[in-house]
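Lecture 7 notes: from sequence to structure.

We start with a single chain of 142 residues. Read the sequence below before looking at the structure.
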Amino acid sequence: MSVALVHSIWGTPMVCLFGGMTTLVIFYAIFRGTGHILYEAMARETDEPHRTYYIVVPYFATLIGGLASNILFGQAAIVGYLVTGLGDAVGEPVGTRFGRHTYKVPSFRGVESVRSYEGSAAVLVVCTAAITVGLFCVPSYR
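Now the structure, written as C-alpha cells:
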C-alpha cells in the first residue's frame, strides 16, 4: 500500500528511494539475525532452518518485479503493487484462521509448504478488488 501511494504521488524516482531505504532495513535485520525484533518480524518459525533464505529470495523477487513493472508498465505498476501487497498480506492470516482444507505446494528448498483453499480464495477476492481499485487510480485507464 505504501509504495502504491508513493508511486501515485511522486512517481518512480521516489519508489526507487523508498525501495533503497527498505533494502537498508531488511539487510540490517538480517545482519542482526535471529533474536532481533526486525528479523523476527520477517522470518517465520515454520521456515526453519532456512529462515534467512525465505527473507532474501522474496526480497529479490519483489525488487526485480517492481523494477520490471515500472520499466514495462509505468504508472500501471500501481496495480501490481496493490495486487501483491494486499493479496499476499491477506492469504496467510485468513488461511491460518479459517483454513480447513489444505493442499501442498512444491518447494525448491525441500521445506514443506501447505496452503488452504480458504486462504487462496481470500487472495483471489482481494486481488480482484485490488485490480479494480488499481485500474481506477491509473489515469490512463479511467
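The CA atoms of residues 74 and 82 lie 14 Å apart. Keep this in mind for problem set 3.
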